[in-house]
Structure formats: structure tokens, C-alpha cells
Amino acid sequence: MSAPARIPPGGFKELGPINWAIAKLGARGIRAPKFHLFNVLGQHKLLFLAWLPFSGYLLYAGKLSRKDAELVILRVGHLRDCEYELQQHRRLAKSRGVDAELQARIFEGPDADGLNDRQRVLITATDEFVITRSMSPETWAALSGIYNRAQLIEFCTLAGQYDALAATMATLKIPLDFPD
């Protein structure tokens, strides 16, 4: 059994009408009764409204392919042992071309059999970014070979956003949205 939430998911009173409506729409979007992440973060009303477009851009409209973004997010979730992030993104990744077999390879690491060169570079770059807070010249050169400047900046921002989100979810002990 998981530890109790340090900040329980809020309802209308704690979120206010705008964030409550956003949390309800988010829950509908993930097909869950509540979107606990939104029901917790939404209690800081202005920060949530500032964070949401940034996060949404990275997840839905960024310059990285949705498949690449999910690979990075899944690897960050794995490295940070963040079950909330993994539960959400295992589902979303499947709709973006990252099937269960590829997910298992992502979790195994850059030396897993069956990965292509691009996937190895992305996993290695994510590992270095999250673990060392930087990237070796060799890994940077490899990543620069597949991404343009804007994508390189976005890669760092995406990995950093999901690393910070994993730390926030772990610290606040946000409950999972699905029973599995």
C-alpha cells in the first residue's frame, strides 16, 4: 500500500472553478474519475495556470516527434522510479507508436537488443541528462546529429520538466489515477 498523499487531491473548494473544470476535463481525457496530478497541483491556482500551457506544449505540440517525447518521458519515469509518470505514459505512449515491447527495451536501457540507433541516442542522452545533469561531448554530438537547435533545447526542457514532475509527484505522494 502506498503512503498517504501529503497534499490530498482537492475538489471544487480547493481548486476554484477554473482549475476544477480543467481537472474534470483532464480526467475525462485520461478516462479516469480524477486526474490526481491536476487535483493536487491545481490547488496552487496561478502556478497551475502558468505550468499547464508549458507542459501541454511539450506533451502535445512540441518540436520533437510524439514518439520521441514519449521515449524520453518513459525513460525519465523509469530512472526516477515514478510510478505515476509511468502509469500515465505507458498508456499514452501506446497511442503514439511505443508498444509494450519497445517500452520494455526503453526500461532495459540503451544496450537493449532491438533498439535502433536513434532510440539508443535518446535513451543515452536522457540517462546522462537526468543522472549527471549534463551530457558528454560524445552524446551531445550524437543527439545533435538527429536534432536541430530548437529540438536540442526542447529535449533538455522536456527531460528536465519530467524529472522535476517526478520529484514533485514523489514528494507530494500523489495517488495513482488507475488501480493497476
How would you portray this structure in words?
By secondary structure, this protein is an all-alpha fold. The protein folds into 2 domains: 12-61; 66-171, AhpD-like (Up-down Bundle). The protein is built from 9 helices and no strands. It has helices spanning 12-30, 36-41, 45-61, 66-79, 83-94, 100-108, 117-132, 137-144, 149-172. Helix 4 packs antiparallel against helix 5. The longest helix is centred in the last third of the chain and has 24 residues, at 149-172. It is globular. The model has no long low-confidence stretch (mean pLDDT 95).
Number of helices: 9
Residue-averaged pLDDT, rounded? 95
**N-C termini distance:** 12 Å
CATH first level of the largest domain? Mainly Alpha
The general outline is globular
Which features characterize this protein?
mainly alpha, globular
What's the short story on this structure?
The chain has 180 residues and is mainly α.
